[in-house]
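#struct-queue
[09:14] JT: dropping the first one here, sequence first, then the structure tokens:
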Amino acid sequence: MTLPDVIAPRLNTGTALGKALISMFKSVEAELILEGAEPGAVKVIVFGGCAVHLYTNHRVSTDVDAEIYSARAPDRFLLQTLLAEVPEQFVDERSGRLMELNYDLQYNTGFGPLHEEYWERSLPLEEFPIESALHLHIAAPIDIVISKLGRATDQDVGDIMALLRSGFILTTELRRLALQAIDMYVGNKEPPRSVLTNILHDYLETIDGEAP
């Protein structure tokens, strides 16, 4: 069996959803500039369906699952409230429907396993350069997959398979990092281990079936 070569992850912010995501955080950037915030005063990392969309265009999401980091906790809560108050509207290219992108106040990275080096692997969006008061990053494909092993709904599994098929993830590296993350996970470790085993088995079987 020959596995496909791993390719460097690429982000596409040119879709309607991608543009809506950028617009949502540009409004926060503008507020920070008015307040005279320093470069990188706020750092945001996006997980979930929006991140999957930017990598694969697999599906459209209407929720922004993100973690905000700020030196001052009150600022973080104010920014979350600001983001949640004004949804971004966009027209889905596939269905032609008007949709609303909402910031999910309930999201927490503790919902599933997460490898400790996820920020180092994340991809910064060029729309928010180093001199910007807000640095917006998208979690790396491998870390999105690991984060979805906790709940592992049908949608999560679909997202994981789409990311694996994208060629951005080496399965041996996924197994290694996921097991490290699960060992540190405060929840029940057995379900995400089983999900990981089953997903890798199904994916590798599919690759094997496609091999000439």
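[09:21] JT: and here's the second one, same format:
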Amino acid sequence: MMRHAYVTLVTNADYARGAAALVRSLKRTGTAADIVVLHTGGVPPSALAPLEVLGVRLVAAGLLPTSHAFDERHARDRLHADAPFTKGGKPAFHTPLNNFAKLRLWELEEYGRAVFLDADTIVLRSIDRLFSYPEFSAAPNVYESLADFHRLNSGVFVAQPSRATFAAMLERLDAPGAFWRRTDQTFLESFFPDWHGLPVFDNMLQYVWFNLPELWDWSSVRVIHYQYEKPWEAGHSKAERLKPLIDLWKAFDADLPVPDPALLPGPAGAKE
């Protein structure tokens, strides 16, 4: 039988904590798939220890062998200046260049199909059906208006690992003068121009809660993605508006009982 895996990436201690909450949420769905955590050199062993206890497969993943010019264009200060984030705040530990390391998922050829999940996501109900979706499948980047349905969000996607694909990616990624405005997300949208759309409920971006409340449906939401501000950040500017979602994440973080999402109250402005 084809082996399947859920894969995430951690690049520092903050994302390792996020990944632990994600792993707990996946395990509660009863999935039989492997759970793989790619980790870069920026993660101390003490931050990886809780993940090891959870029984995941830890795989060291070095940063990609990109050129010095590429690295300069995608360094945090340079990228944030050339392509500022105007819709929300990125935490101080955000390192755009490290995002490209998730492409190492394509090196995991022992898996016939892999579902990638950012470490700032949690899974509320089984998403094993995604293993039957084709490469490359992703949900739209919708969190402000429906006009963004044509753009993908790379926080959740379906891929078919292949070293040949990975080699082709490296060649395209570091082409002369290449600048990927939203790092791996912009690159993947370019590399897979005919990407297959997943339902928004497979990657529900947290800003939908207050920007598009009529789109939020607890009985359908399968993955919540805490884009921009993270649920473990204390007192960020949107913490009060997102409190129900943050409280839900904290339950997974502390391994506490989680209420049935279908019974949770919806956001203000949602249709009854």
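[09:30] RK: nice, looked through the second one.
[09:31] RK: Helices lie at 13-28, 45-53, 68-73, 76-82, 163-173, 183-191, 208-211, 243-253.
[09:31] JT: good to know. The beta strands are 4-10, 34-39, 57-60, 113-117, 121-123, 137-140, 152-159, 196-197, 204-205, 223-225.
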